[in-house]
Design goal:
The chain has one domain. Helices cover 73% and strands 0% of the residues. It is built from eleven helices and no strands.
Amino acid sequence: MLAMMRSEWMKIRRSIVWLLVPISPLLALPAGLLGTSATDGAPWQEALALLAVLHAMLFLPLLTCVFAAMVCRYEHLNGGWKQLLALPVSRTSVYAAKLAVILLLLALVQLLFLLALLMVGILGGFAPPIPWGALLSSVLGGWIACLPLAALQLFASTLFQSFAAPVAAGVVFTMPNMLIANSAQYGPYYPWVQPMLAMIPREHMAFGAFGITSGTLLAVIGVSFAAFFLVGWTYFSRKAV
């Protein structure tokens, strides 16, 4: 597994993925500076809600789709899957390593988002104390909520032989996020909207799927992740190369 992780690192260390990682935090920073004020009743929470809408509704799901496609791009070129799977490595290790790389990239995105949020507060002159519990809960919750989507998009990226197809599918399914979030019946089960449900403070969104409890959302995320990972791993373990 560690050897596979090193191999995946070698593939992406000079790729454009590192230009994509900071995009969402960089775009969220000016939005937060312009949209929040130290005179707000709860400026830290207001900034969190504002930044999370843009970040978790749009960019976080899209980045998950792109990262999943990029970790499989090398293998789709010039018979890369045959070369990789001809090595003395298990398919489980290969699949798990690719998923781990996606999740590590998403963790880095979330850390940069937290840094952007702190910069909004510092530059905006928000009064202390910093509500670390709320901020860390949002950032960690958004990362956890990406688990099902990462597993689903990795499955799609191994299924399709092109980089564009799974990314295009991710874009199409991300676009209706706000509409689907209005549905308390379907919203919690939609993988592309789950990061937004996990990141935006409940007191700022009281409609539709945002009414779901944190415990129920975590249960849905856990079951979805297990199901998508099992389906994707089963397909990959039997994939003809």
